[in-house]
Each structure stands twice: as C-alpha cells, then as structure tokens.
Recover the amino acids of this structure.
C-alpha cells in the first residue's frame, strides 16, 4: 500500500510549529487522553471481574488513572518537543489545527490507511492466536476471562489513543532523538528510525505482561507469546507513525484492538 510523506516545512524545521498552534494541539491531545483513560476503565474492570481478581477501591483507581494520564501527557509533550527535528510527531494534526488547505482530506486518508492496516493486523493476530491455542500447551486459565463487546470497544478506543501517545509519540520519538545524538545525524537515517521503532515495540510488549498475572499462568511460553504478538503489531504501528503520522498509528491500534477485544468476543462468545 502506498504512502505519502507527511512531514512538511512546519514540522521539519528546527523550531517546530508556532507556540499558539502547539498549545491548541496539546489541548486536543489532553482532551483525547482524558477520554481514553475514562474509556479504558470499564474494560479493565471487566477483565478483573471475569478473572475473579480483587477490584481496586475507587480512590486507588482514581489515583492510578491520574498517574496514567500524567504519563500520557508527559510522553505527548516529549514527542511534540522532539519530533519536528526528526520528521516525526503529529504533522497531520497540526495541519488540521492550523486549518491548512486539504488538511481534512489528508487526515481522512491517514485514518483510512490506519484502519485498514489495523484490521488486517487484528485478523492475522486472531488467526495466529487460534493456531497457538491448538498447537501449544497453553494454561487453561487463558480461556477463562471474558468481557462484553461494548467494554472491548471502549478499551480499543482508549488504548488506540493513549498507548500510541506513550509508545509512539513519546517513547519511539525519544529513542530516535537519543540515537540521532549518538550518531550525530539529523535527520536520522531509516535504520535509526527502525531501531527506535523496535525498542518502542519491545517496551510496548513488556507493558502488556502484567495482564498475564490476571488472566493466566506466567511462564516462558505465555511471556513469549505476549512479547511477540504485541511487539509485531507495535512495529506496524511505529511504521505507520513514521510514514503516515500519529493519527494513522492511532487508527491502526484502534482497529487491531477492535477486532481482538470487541469483534472476536461478539462473534465467538466463550
């Protein structure tokens, strides 16, 4: 599938976007992050209930949500600050905020591209997961947890926003900047961007390990499956972030999780 080069003069300059558009963009990102945190809560609670784990009391849940939101906003700030010199960031969003010509149509193309890639990744991941369950000696507890498709939809929405703000806009951009300083090259070559992408994807995989303690037995096999599955889709999201912008990565993440968390439970109820 073809792609267009998104970074324009606004984002490839060393100064980045002007202060006012940057502030407006951060306001939109902050609002989306809050919505993402709120949307994720019912999904996380349903996983905990279905696995018969102890629910966090609401004060502790509120504190955890605020910490999560702070992390998301910190990573978004890092990416917005460092991205312009690297050809990364959110050029599609800043163009839309500034109401540049054809910004809406470009944003629509990025969303459609992300949705197509993400849906394909979700289908492939589902098929590979079914094959793993049929072939590998997985713990029975892996099949025990269930949640409603509605909660899965909310979880997909929240993860698509906040996990991309953390791992692509924040972590991948930070790694790309550190590596570019190490080799003293700007803009960074493709090999360096792929290295940053791989490091962010690895972190993305490790971030999904705690759910194993809720759903199933933690062993080398289940850890390997979580790291491999999330790492591969993380590479896809990072590639889309690099080549098509942050919105495309968000759309792809949402579509992948929509298949895994909503469509599969809806069509193949346990």
């Amino acid at each position: 599938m073809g792609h267009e080069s998104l970074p324009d003069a606004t984002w490839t300059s060393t100064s980045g976007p002007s202060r006012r558009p940057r502030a407006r963009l951060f306001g939109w990102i902050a609002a989306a992050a809050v919505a993402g945190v709120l949307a994720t809560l019912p999904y996380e609670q349903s996983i905990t209930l279905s696995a018969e784990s102890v629910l966090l009391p609401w004060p502790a849940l509120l504190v955890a949500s605020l910490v999560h939101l702070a992390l998301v906003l910190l990573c978004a700030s890092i990416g917005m600050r460092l991205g312009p010199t690297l050809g990364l960031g959110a050029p599609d969003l800043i163009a839309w905020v500034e109401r540049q010509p054809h910004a809406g149509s470009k944003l629509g193309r990025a969303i459609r591209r992300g949705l197509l890639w993400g849906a394909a990744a979700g289908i492939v991941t589902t098929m590979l997961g079914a094959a793993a369950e049929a072939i590998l000696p997985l713990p029975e507890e892996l099949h025990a947890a269930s949640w409603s498709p509605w909660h899965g939809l909310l979880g997909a929405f929240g993860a698509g926003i906040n996990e991309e703000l953390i791992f692509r806009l924040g972590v991948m951009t930070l790694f790309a900047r550190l590596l570019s300083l190490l080799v003293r090259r700007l803009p960074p070559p493709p090999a360096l961007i792929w290295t940053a992408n791989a490091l962010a994807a690895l972190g993305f995989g490790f971030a999904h390990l705690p759910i194993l303690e809720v759903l199933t037995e933690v062993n080398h096999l289940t850890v390997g499956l979580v790291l491999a599955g999330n790492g591969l889709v993380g590479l896809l999201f990072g590639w889309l972030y690099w080549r098509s912008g942050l919105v495309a990565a968000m759309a792809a993440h949402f579509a992948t999780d929509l298949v895994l968390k909503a469509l599969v439970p809806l069509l193949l109820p346990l």
